[in-house]
Amino acid sequence: MSKEIIEKINNGQLPEITITNGVNLAEGEICHYADTAYTFKDKTVTTGYTGRSSGVSIRLMKGLTYRRGGSGGKAIRETQRTMYKGILFITNKRVIYTSTKESFDKPFDKITSIMEAKDGILLQIGSTTYSIIVPTHSEFIKVFNMAKNALRG
After folding, report:
1. Residue partners of 128: CB distance under 8 A and separation at least 6
2. Is 53's pLDDT higher than 70?
3. Topology classification of domain 3-42+82-152
4. 143 neighbors 114 (Cβ within 8 angstroms)
5. Domain map (residue ranges) of the chain
6. Average pLDDT value over all residues in the chain
7. 120: closest CA among 137, 139, 140, 101?
8. pTM of the model
9. In whole angstroms, what is the distance from residue 7 CA to residue 1 CA?
10. Mean pLDDT throughout 110-118?
11. Side-chain half-sphere of 4: how many Cα atoms within 13 Å?
12. Rounded distance, CA 35 to CA 136, Å?
């Protein structure tokens, strides 16, 4: 988003943004917010093993060895994050997130809660929570509240 749009939002005004990237708006629907965002999934995966062994090997003859002892190993696990790039929109009727994964399109009354996080927002829709990283998360919450209140009034 441009500095002018961010300044308008921070002054308590709802901007009108022209969308040119494929989101179809209904008749009379106006976009007030559009910014690049990311959703992500964290997954724990096994990346290797660490091990130890102890005991004695005795060579009985060429090609034949007797081994006595034990060994043990432990899986090495790491959390890997997969990020999905998308675009987050707020119109005068709904919130839209377009992405290759985790997309949604919900009217204001279907959104249970929005919480601001360090680098984004947590958006709860019913029993599903979306973690969305967006650089203008403070402005997102301001526009959401202004658009929702404008819809009521």
Report:
1. none
2. no
3. PH-domain like (2.30.29)
4. no
5. 3-42+82-152, 44-79
6. 86
7. 137
8. 0.73
9. 10
10. 90
11. 3
12. 8
